[in-house]
Write a structure and sequence with these properties.
Helices cover 49% and strands 14% of the residues. Helix 3 packs parallel to helix 8 (173-183) and helix 12 crosses helix 16 (367-384). The longest helix is centred in the first third of the chain and has 18 residues, at 92-109. The protein has helices at 22-29, 40-49, 74-86, 92-109, 113-125, 139-142, 147-157, 173-183, 194-200, 236-246, 262-270, 300-314, 320-335, 338-348, 355-363, 367-384, 398-406, 414-427, 431-439, 447-456, 458-461, 471-475; strands spanning 2-8, 53-58, 63-69, 163-169, 209-213, 220-227, 248-250, 275-282, 287-295, 388-393. The chain has 3 domains: 2-193, 2-Layer Sandwich (Cytochrome Bc1 Complex, Chain A, domain 1); 209-406, Metalloenzyme, LuxS/M16 peptidase-like (Cytochrome Bc1 Complex, Chain A, domain 1, 2-Layer Sandwich); 414-475, no CATH class. The chain is built from 22 helices and 10 strands. A hairpin with a 4-residue loop joins strand 8 and strand 9 (287-295). It is of the alpha+beta class. It has a 6-stranded mixed sheet with strand order 5-10-6-9-8-7, with helices on both faces. Strands 2-3-1-4 form a 4-stranded antiparallel sheet, with helices on both faces. It is globular. One of its GO terms (cellular component) is mitochondrion. This is Putative mitochondrial-processing peptidase subunit beta. Residues 2-138 form the Peptidase M16 N-terminal domain. One of its GO terms (biological process) is proteolysis.
Length: 479
C-alpha cells in the first residue's frame, strides 16, 4: 500500500473576512469533476475500481488532498490529484449542491462540543485576526461564495512555492519525481511564500475569555490555552512531550486508574470529568497549548484546582519515568502518518526531517527540559497576563473556573503555593524588593514554607543589602 498527497500552504488564515470559508468550500468542490473526468460519478468510479480512498481536509494554515492506494496504482493516483487541482470544472449546479452540504455540515458541527469550543478558543486567543476565524466560515459567506471566488483562491494561493507532493509506502521515489514533473505544470510560479504572508500579518495572542451559557446542557465544556510555540520553535518538541505527559482520557473508555497520566488518574479517581484532552497546536508563528475537558457543574471547583496544580507541577516536579513514557508515545504516533508528516514538514521546515533526527530530538527531552519549558510557557506567561480560555454549556459554578484559571497564586494547596513562591524568588533580579511587590497582598504564607524558600534560594538573598529577618513579618500575615 502507498499514500500520496498534495499539501498546500493555504488555509483559512489566508482568507479575507468576506471570503472566509473559501478554502473549505474549494476542498468540497475538488471532487466534483474535471475537464477529463466531467462528473463526480466518473471520478468516484475510477477511484473505486482501484480499491483506493480519496479524501481531503482543510485546516487554518493548510489544505491537503490525498489518496491511499496499492503500490501499482501510485501513478494513477498522482494523475487524479494533479487533474482535480489543475482542471476543476466548478459546475454551477455542483456549487449550489455543495452550498447546502456545507450549511448542513455547519449545523452538525454546532452539536460537536469539541469543535465548538476550539473555534471559540481561537477567536478568544487571536482576536481580529484570520487565525481566529472558523475554517467553515460564516453562513452569509457560504451562501455567497461563487465560482469566481474559487478560481481566484486557486490562482492566488495554489502556487508552486506553497505546494508539496508527498508519497510514502510502496513507492519508487525517482518514478514519483518524474511523474510529478510531467503532471504538475499548470500552477503559478508566484514567488510569494506563506512565511512572507504570515510575516506581513502576524497573529497576536490575546489573553481573554469567552463564555457561552446553555443551562439545559448536562456538562460544562472548558478549554484553557496558553500561548504555545510555532512549528519551528525549538520548544515545539518539548511541548509535544509535555502534552503527552498530560495525556488524554475518556470515562467511556475507562483505564483512568491505570493511566500513565497523573492528571487522568486524579480526574478518574475523583470522578471530576467525563473526558480530558491535552493539546499542542502549532502554527507558523504561534501556537496554543492547553487542556480541554467536559465536566458536570458541581465538579468544576475541584477539577479546575486539580488542572491548575498539574500545570504548576510540570514546572517543578516531573519524573523521568513519565517523561520516558511520553517520549515513547510520541515515537509511536509519528510512525502512524509518515506521508502526512513529510508533507507538513516540507511546508513548515523546508525539508523532511529524518526519523532518526526527529526521534533524537524527542529523546533529548528530559525532566529538566520539560520543567524549563513549562516555566516558560505556563508559569511565566501566566504572570505576564491571563491565559485564554473558553467555557461552553452548563456552568453554574463558573466563578471557580475564573478564580482558579485566572489567578495562579490563589490556591490553598501548600505545595502548589510553595512552588509559586520559589518561582518568584528564582526569577527576580532584585530579589527581596521585587518579591515584596509581587507577593504582597496574597493569602497567608506559613513560616516553615518561607524558611524553605530562604534555604533553597539563600544565595539570592545573601548579597542583597536590603534583606533582614523582619522582612517577611512586615509584609505577610503569618498562619
Amino acid at each position: 500500500m502507498a499514500s500520496v498527497g498534495v499539501w498546500v500552504d493555504a488555509g483559512s488564515r489566508f482568507e479575507l473576512p468576506g471570503t472566509n470559508g473559501t478554502a473549505h468550500f474549494l476542498e468540497h468542490m475538488a471532487f466534483k469533476g474535471t475537464e477529463r473526468r466531467p462528473t463526480a460519478n466518473a471520478l468516484e468510479v475510477e477511484i473505486e475500481d482501484m480499491g483506493a480512498r480519496l479524501n481531503a481536509y482543510t485546516s487554518r494554515e493548510q489544505t491537503t488532498f490525498f489518496a491511499d492506494v496499492q503500490g501499482r496504482d501510485v501513478p494513477a493516483a498522482l494523475d487524479v490529484l494533479s487533474d482535480i487541482l489543475q482542471h476543476p470544472r466548478f459546475p454551477q449546479q455542483g456549487i449550489q449542491r455543495e452550498r447546502g452540504v456545507i450549511l448542513r455540515e455547519m449545523e452538525e458541527v454546532q452539536g460537536m462540543m469539541e469543535e465548538v469550543i476550539f473555534d471559540h478558543l481561537h477567536t478568544a486567543a487571536f482576536r481580529d485576526h484570520p487565525l481566529g476565524d472558523t475554517i467553515l466560515g460564516p453562513t452569509e459567506n457560504i451562501k455567497s461564495i461563487s465560482k469566481k471566488d474559487l478560481q481566484q483562491y486557486i490562482s492566488t494561493h495554489y502556487t508552486c512555492p506553497r505546494m508539496v507532493v508527498s508519497a510514502s509506502g510502496a513507492v519508487d521515489h525517482d518514478e514519483v519525481v518524474d511523474q510529478v514533473r510531467k503532471l504538475f505544470t499548470g500552477f503559478s510560479t508566484d514567488p510569494t511564500t506563506a512565511d512572507q504572508l504570515v510575516e506581513a500579518n502576524p497573529a497576536i495572542f490575546t489573553g481573554s475569555e469567552v463564555r457561552v451559557e446553555h443551562a439545559e446542557m448536562p456538562l460544562a465544556h472548558i478549554a484553557i490555552a496558553f500561548k504555545g510555540s510555532s512549528w519551528t520553535d525549538p520548544s515545539s518538541i518539548p511541548l509535544m512531550v509535555t502534552q503527552s505527559i498530560l495525556g488524554s482520557w475518556n470515562r467511556s473508555i475507562g483505564v483512568g486508574n491505570c493511566s500513565g497520566s497523573a492528571l487522568a488518574r486524579g480526574i478518574s479517581n475523583g470522578e471530576l470529568a467525563e473526558n480530558l484532552m491535552a493539546f499542542n497546536t502549532n502554527y507558523r508563528d504561534t501556537g496554543l497549548f492547553g487542556i480541554y475537558t467536559g465536566a458536570p457543574p458541581d465538579a468544576l471547583h475541584d477539577l479546575s484546582r486539580l488542572i491548575m496544580e498539574e500545570f504548576r507541577r510540570l514546572a517543578f516536579r516531573v519524573s523521568e519515568t513519565e517523561v520516558a513514557r511520553a517520549r515513547n508515545q510520541d515515537h509511536a504516533s509519528l510512525w502512524a502518518a509518515v506521508s502526512e508528516n513529510n508533507g507538513r514538514q516540507m511546508l513548515t521546515y523546508g525539508r523532511v526531517m529524518p526519523f532518526l533526527e526527529l526521534f533524537a530530538r524527542i529523546d533529548a527531552v528530559d525532566c529538566d527540559t520539560v520543567m524549563k519549558t513549562a516555566k516558560e510557557f505556563i508559569i511565566d506567561k501566566a504572570n505576564d497576563g491571563s491565559p485564554s480560555y473558553d467555557e461552553y454549556g452548563n456552568k453554574d459554578h463558573d466563578e471557580f473556573i475564573y478564580k482558579e484559571f485566572a489567578d495562579f497564586s490563589d490556591s490553598d494547596n501548600e505545595n502548589a503555593e510553595m512552588m509559586i513562591i520559589e518561582e518568584e524568588l528564582e526569577k527576580q533580579e532584585e530579589h527581596v524588593l521585587n518579591f515584596k511587590g509581587s507577593i504582597k497582598g496574597k493569602r497567608a504564607i506559613s513560616w516553615d514554607r518561607i524558611a524553605r524558600a530562604k534555604l533553597l534560594y539563600k544565595d539570592y538573598f545573601k548579597p542583597d543589602p536590603t534583606y533582614d529577618e523582619g522582612f517577611f513579618q512586615r509584609h505577610f500575615r503569618m498562619s
